[in-house]
Amino acid sequence: PLTLLWFRDDLRVTDHEALTAARDDGDVVAIWVREERDAEGRGPRPLGAATRWWAHESLQVLGTELDELGIPLLFAAGTATQIIPEVAADLEADTVRWSRRYAPASRALDEAVARELEARGIASEGSPGSLLVEPWEVEPSSASAYYKVFTPYWNAARQVSVDLPLPAVTAQSLPRDIRDRVERVRRENAHLLAEIDDLELLEAGTGPASTRFTPRSGAGGGAKESSLGEGDPRFPWWEDTIARYWTPGCVGAREAVDRLGERIAGYAEDRDFPGDPEGTSALSPRLRFGEISPRQLLAEVDALGDVGAGDREAWVRQIYWREFAWHLTYHVPDLDWRPMRPEFADFPYEDDPEALAAWQAGRTGIALVDAGMRQLWQTGWMHNRVRMVAASLLSKNLLLPWQLGEQWFWDTLVDADEANNPVSWQWVAGCGADASPFFRVFNPERQRVRFDPDGVYVRQWLEGDAGEGAGGVDAGDDSDGGAVAPIVDLGESRQAALAAYDAMKSAQTSD
Ligand code: FAD
């Protein structure tokens, strides 16, 4: 039997349940689709600019790895509801397999694909692979359908046992007639299939518009439009920036995993200091694209005999924060723009494009935030502590809708993730399920003194060549970040944020 294996957020060939099942059944042909949402809005959130770059690079590595296994990899762009059934039928595949995804709009799409396949007499099956625990495997005993608070979630999720990673699959030698079918499908489906370089993953603003929230005062809805779109002068050529920092693909992921022991040693303490380049694992884009499975990471951590139990536990806890974000994302639609606490739909945010542009470019005059925003622009990644501080400045001191910051991160982070990004933004903005209380406004100056006491991080990103932010702003003339006057007074803006929060609450009670 022939299986069409549909790769999505699982760009690896090891510990891959769907691949293993497909090889157990027989022959395998693989496909990856640059997906657009279909007319009903079903499908994953379209990739942002930085994740498009990552996907382009990672897929080439996947192609090489699959080649060694004798598995051809096809590419296509468009709506999967059309492409997958058509290609599967033309290949005369018996089954289509994939690793499950969990956001409501993606699940709806996968169900639609499965129905379409069934109508053509083709079986389909989704397998686990991206999470340690399926979102429905942990249910609170209370009336709520899902956990809204992390700690009880964690306590329950840890009780669910996690299997060991799967052994590697063996290479196949594709029979002649199937090879011929693949060639015929390639020839005859030029309207559906493409070469990877035709997917326009590296081109500015050519892709399907990703989601952008346009604030309408008091309204909960969002218009959809990319923030780094066609003709936007800020769109960078990633080769000159983030490509210098990363080796996408499952081979690079395995190398990163080899360094995991060094990163986890001291993690409980070091993880909060952005100036420590070894402080955290930097595995987030690998997990985002499934270049390594969380279960493989858990097995690696278990094998790190010489690393302290406290450090290991602290790190594994963060892996479960990712699980928790997917648990929420599974249960709650539209997390990228709809606040989980509904009263926040009426929060009196400001409309201030200049402040937004200054924040994006790392020119707020607040050193820790500017350093973080430039690290993001240059590397596609930002340290977690600085993400929290930058998000707090945007959503509280600047009183800008958190959705605008979330969208910027979506376009510029290589780990931009449909669960972690909106859930973390909602957490910082105070409107999430398990949000930090609104009055917890980070003081970025105090955070800098505490977590970057020697100024290593701020100097690294605000000085010299590294200091270029979005918009080609050269920091040559403001190398200490201090030449730009702060665009807000931290004390006054904190008071204004608390007043805005009170206004929201009293509007609610008078309703
Ligand atoms: P490590 O500290 O080594 O942690 C290991 C892994 O655990 C990470 O790779 C990640 O998968 C997971 N993890 C760690 N911290 C968190 C967390 N707070 N929440 C959820 N999972 C976590 N993470 C993303 O993967 N994608 C995003 O789009 C994203 N957006 C964020 C936006 C904001 C405003 C904030 C405050 C946080 C965001 N995070 C996001 C969470 C966190 O900042 C990153 O996962 C982390 O910085 C990645 O670095 P690392 O791989 O070195 O993490």
Automatic annotation (TrEMBL):
PANTHER family: CRYPTOCHROME, CRYPTOCHROME CIRCADIAN CLOCK 5 ISOFORM X1. Residues 1-132 form the Photolyase/cryptochrome alpha/beta domain. Pfam families: DNA_photolyase, FAD_binding_7. Its cofactor is FAD. Keywords: FAD, Flavoprotein. Gene3D superfamilies: 1.25.40.80, DNA Cyclobutane Dipyrimidine Photolyase, subunit A, domain 3, HUPs. This is Deoxyribodipyrimidine photo-lyase. Coiled coil: none annotated. Residues 207-232 are annotated as: Disordered. It comes from the Bacteria. Signal peptide: none annotated. The keyword Flavoprotein applies. InterPro entries: Crypto/Photolyase_FAD-like_sf, Crypto/Photolyase_N_sf, Cryptochr/Photolyase_FAD-bd, Cryptochrome/DNA_photolyase_1, DNA_photolyase_N, Rossmann-like_a/b/a_fold.
